[in-house]
Each structure stands twice: as structure tokens, then as C-alpha cells.
Amino acid sequence: MDAQGRGRADNIDPADQWVLNPDTGEYELRLAPPGAQSSVPRPRRATPVDGVQGGTRTAPGRGEPAPDVLPGQRRRGAPPEPPGRRRGRTKPKKGKAKKILLWTGGSMAFVLVAVTAAGYFYLQHLEGNVATTDVGDAAKNGFSKDEAFNILIIGTDKRTGKGNEGYGDKGSVGHADTNILLHVSKDRTNATALSIPRDLIVNVPDCPTKQPDGTTKVIPGTQNVRFNTSLGQDGRDPGCTMRTVKEITGGIEPDHFMMLDFNAVKTLTTAVGGVEVCLKHAVNDPKSHLDLPAGPSKIEGEQALAFVRTRHSWGNHGDLDRIKVQQQFMASLMRKMSSSDTLTDPSKLLDLAEAATKALTVDTGLHKVSTLKDVALELKKVPTKNITFLTVPVVDNPADGVVHKTVIVDPNKGPEVFAAIKNDVSFTTVKKKQQAAKATADNPLKGSRSAASDIRVDIYNGGAPTGSAQTTLSWLQNNEGVTKSSQLGNAGKTLSKTTLEYSPDQADQARKLADIMGLPASALKPGKSEKNDQGLPAMVLTLGQDFQGPGTPLTAPTKAPDVDNKSTADKVQCAS
After folding, report:
1. Band (433; pLDDT cuts 50, 70, 90)
2. Which residues is 218 bridged to in the sheet?
3. Contact of 480 with 452, CB cutoff 8 Å
4. Is the pLDDT of residue 68 over 90?
5. Mean pLDDT lowest for which of 28-37, 360-369, 462-471, 498-507?
6. How deeply is 68 buried, as exposed, middle or buried, from its count of CB atoms within 10 A (0-12, 13-18, 19+)?
7. Which stretches within 29-149 are classed as H helix?
8. What is the mean pLDDT of the chain?
9. In Å, how far from its chain's centre is CA 123?
10. What is the distance between the alpha carbons of residues 322 and 187, in angstroms, rounded to a whole number?
11. C-beta separation of 181 from 254 below 8 A
């Protein structure tokens, strides 16, 4: 046991265990057992000068007299010490230094413990800022730093918070007004921020929601409604919005959600000292109260909120043009939050931590501040030049008639964008992705010499949406020339993956059909054919749960499609 350990165990001040040996003039460590009497004369302890009482100096707490002179001193009138008898005058200083070292060592340990405790309690405080919503199995239980991840960012139009009562609809239940599906690639080389228009017409699926008493209530789905009603309407929670995203994107599952209200924009921009924006023309909007000149401006607080709320001063005065401006704002905020100006300023970082945690509502899988920190650090690995902003490809809703108020997913471009995100394909040029594309460019399924008219195939539905076998048959016969095909209804079992079974002599036909339908090599199953209704051998195509419709490839894309109006987070753009 060391001096401090023994001293504490015996209720002794650790500094008192260093005593002066008068015979050597050195300070020595005394570790006598409690109550034991040493046979060696106990050396006296040096004491401060102001301990003099009645002509003697008393070692505090000892009760034994000490000489009224210190080592190196002599009584007035006494002869000087002969040569060779001088004791080192600096020895007490050495002892004092050791005592100071021991005391400061203890103090430093206390400071470190105090700082650690303060850090812990501050994290607890930040954690208390974060609001959570249990969305059940719509979100994952935890966060993995080793996988690609999808986070649905929802901006609500709920008018809670100081100063927000006067904005728009005071009675709003909090709809999904601004929505961004953020996909971060597994290798952290790129990320895609996909904006989902609030006026997109969708089918909202049935949604289980957690009630205050702990029970689960299933809110019935609705057909052909605006996307923003997936939150708030009829008591829907963010989990309902997450399920709706999965429905419209062909299976992209958000892992978590982060929800913010109006105050988030105000507090976050204020915490970082303002965000730079640019306007091609001056704006003075009486509805949003945005008043900015043309050119660059720095905005925060109320002006920042007005900037992202403004709709009637951009483009065609619609939500799609506002989305472009919001993406420019988000890119600028990302640049500011990751700048050295912010990261090297402790005051800004603390303000940002407070603002961010107070602004957020998250699922229970993200409720710990340490987990939110992990998410932020993983996103920080992605270069801003490889963070792409784009919007779900849409077309005007034909059901609106003459005046177009809503939109629907573009049936041609939408699935391509969703497939790229689902398969972790970058929308920017990334060297590693280019190499992967080159490696897979030579598709082993290509090069078949069979003609489409030679293919005989029977089609079954083994888990695909109802009617898929018939629509695939029509598409193959009318669009692709596979005229020797037929559909035979439901398969005897449900398959998660689409399969094409064929006999050895049909291998070339199988490659041709796989090429036409965009089937991966894993879908081809050498085996047996069956007799079709004419008694001829036919391959067996079973459409599984992964089937998304005729013409939609099931092979993972290696290159992202070209998308209109996409931008990256490193570029400064001016709103128009």
C-alpha cells in the first residue's frame, strides 16, 4: 500500500507521513502500523515557525515538544557550527515540495473527478432535453456504426413554442410539412438527402400507435391523400410517416426519425451565429415576413424561419420550389455546423448542443445523447461534396384536372431513384463506387442468343402484389415479344425472392428472360421445367415479395439515374 493509501486507511493526513530525520537531515516516509511502537527513535517533525508556544515548538496534533530552533538555525549568541557539521539548509524545502506535490496531486484528482462528474451530469441534462416517441417496430432499437442507415427528418407545422402562435394555422395538429429521407452510405463516402413533397398523393398504411396507457391502437390507413397527413391526422405518430415512406419508395425502411418544430430553425441558426444564404432577387414577403436584399445575407432566428417558410416568392409559388430553397438552406447550415469557426468555439458547441437537443423529438432508439453523438460523427465522415440533395421525381396529379394542386410519383423516374438509394448507390462521383461499377459492368446474364419469341414461361404469383402475374404477362407479350407465356395464378407457397426455374436445355432462354426482366443471377434456379397448356416444356417464373412490377429491375443498380435539380452540400446557390 502506498503512503496515500495507508494514510487514508489509518485516518492520517498523507502529508504528515513525511517527517524529518534529525540525524540525516532528510525527510523520510513513516508507515508504522496503527498502535505499534517502533524501537527506533521516532524522528521529529519539522513545524512552521508560527507554532512556537512558551519557548518550544509543538508539532500540531502530536503534543510533543520540539526544539525552538529549526535545522540550519542557531540560538542567538551561540558559536557557529564547526566545518563539516552544517546540515543542508535546503532540506526542509525538499520536504515542503513533496508535501505540496502530494497535496496538489490530491487536488488534481479531485478536479478530474469533478470535471468527469460535471460532464456526466451535463450529458444527463442534455438527455433530459430530448423528447422521445415510441413508434414500436417502425424504428430500430439501436444504431450501428458499421452499416448504411436511413433517418427520416420531419419538420412539423405545429405552432408550439414562444412566438410561433401567429404563423399559419394555429390549430394545426402537427402535420409532416417538411420531410427529408437522409441515407448515409455504408462506407461513408456519400449521402443522399431525398425531399418528399408534402402535397404528394400517397396511400397511408394502417399504423399501430402507442397510447399513453401503454396499449396499442391501430389507426386505419387512408387512400389517395396528401403525404403530410401521415403525421398528426387521426392521431398518427412519426412511425406512421416512416411506414408511409416505406410504402411509396418500394421498400426503403427508415431506421430512425428526428422531428423538429419551428423553434428548431430559430435556435439552431442562432446557436451557430447565423447561416449564410443567397438570393437572386430581393424579397419582401408579407405572408412569411421575409425581408432580404438580393445577394448574400446572414440570417438567424425569426428571419431564418421566415426563409424556410417562404413559398410565394420563389419560382411558381409552390411547394416544389420552396423545397429547393430549403435544400439550399440545409446545405448552408451543414457547412456552418461543420466549419472550424463552430468546431473550435466551445461556447458555440455548448449552445449548439443545447439547441439541438431541445429541438429534437426522436424514437427511443436514438434517445441517448451518446447515440445522437455517434450519428453526428458518422455523418461528419461524409464529404460535403458527396452529400446530394434531390426531390422525389413527381408529375402533376391527373386527378386534379385543370388546376394542379398535388403531385404523384413519376412512374418512370421514381423507381430508379428509390432503387439507387435502396442499393446504396451514390448520386455523386465516388471513386470506390466507380470501381465497383466497372467490376460488374460485364453482366454474366447478358449475351443470350435466344429470341424473345423463343421463350416459353409460366408465371405464378408467390408473394408479389395482387394481379402481378397478369400485369407481367401483358407486359411480356405486348412490350417485350415474349408471346409463348401464360400466367397460372398463385403459387403453392410464398417466396421472399423472385425465382426463375428452368431445365438445362433452357439455360439460354433463362438468360434472355432474366435480361429482359432485370433479374439477378441469384434468381436463376437450374432444375426442372413443366409442361405448359400445350404440353410443351416451359420455364417457371415465380414472382416473390421483392417484385415491384414489370419493367422494374430486381438487379442492384451500379449507377444512379440522372435527376433534375439535384445539388450538393458544398455548393453555394442563390434562391430565385
Report:
1. very low
2. 208
3. yes
4. no
5. 28-37
6. middle
7. 91-129
8. 80
9. 18
10. 32
11. yes
Give me the pLDDT at residue 338, please: 82
* 266 burial via Cβ count (<10 Å: 0-12, 13-18, 19+): buried
Question: Which residues make beta-bridge pairs with 526?
Answer: 502
The residue type at 449: R
Neighbouring CB atoms inside 10 A of 301's CB total 14
Average pLDDT over residues 5-28: 51
Stronger pLDDT, 385 or 110, i.e. the higher one? 385
Rg (CA), the chain: 37
Q: The C-alpha cell of 35 is what?
A: 498502535
pLDDT band at 437 (very low <50, low <70, confident <90, very high): very low
- Its sign, for the CA torsion 72, 75, 80, 85, is negative
Residues 534, 302: Cα–Cα separation, whole Å: 74
Strand-pairing partners, residue 393, are none
Q: Could you tell me which of 351, 231, 227 has the C-alpha nearest to residue 300?
A: 351
* pLDDT per residue as tens digits for the range 442-452: 344 455 678 99
Per the rule left: phi > 0, alpha: psi between -120 and 50, beta: everything else, 168 is left
C-alpha dihedral, 343 to 347 to 351 to 353, nearest 10°: 50
Residue 189 pLDDT > 50, yes or no? yes
* 53 vs 174, higher pLDDT: 174
Here the cell at position 390 is 434531390
Residue 80: alpha-carbon gap to chain centroid: 79
213 versus 104: the higher-pLDDT residue is: 213
Instruction: Please state, in angstroms and rounded to a whole number, the distance separating the CA atoms of residues 201 and 515.
Output: 33
- Listed in sequence order, the residues at least 6 apart from 325 whose beta carbon sits closer than 8 Å to its beta carbon are 307, 308, 310, 314, 575
Q: Report whether pLDDT(7) > 50.
A: no
Helix-then-strand count for the chain, H and E: 13, 29
* Nearest to 326, CA basis, from 459, 153, 449: 153
pLDDT at 450: 85
Would you state the cell numbers that stand for residue 183, as one nine-digit string? 441515407
Is there a contact between 287 and 168 (Cβ–Cβ < 8 Å)?
A: no
Q: CA-to-CA distance for 514 and 236, rounded, in angstroms?
A: 41
* Residues with Cβ within 8 Å of residue 89, at least 6 apart in sequence: 71, 72
Q: Closest by alpha carbon to 196, among 386, 387, 418?
A: 418
